[in-house]
Give the backbone structure.
Amino acid sequence: MARPSPERAPSASEQLEALLGKRWPFPGRPPKHDLSTWRVTDDWPDPVPVTLAEVEVFERWFGDLFDEFFSSPL
């Protein structure tokens, strides 16, 4: 006997439409800035300067992860 397939959960857009009672995205004027025409450039120095305080923050928050990641396998 075939099982009925579970219903697909509504997408975020479908949930928003149901909540607002309007179509999403809203019809109307297009956005002021067309992001498809933007260009990303990297103007950071090489190497990127890092302060001792920034290093300490990363070591405090991610120290266990770094130890596990960079430790040699037993």
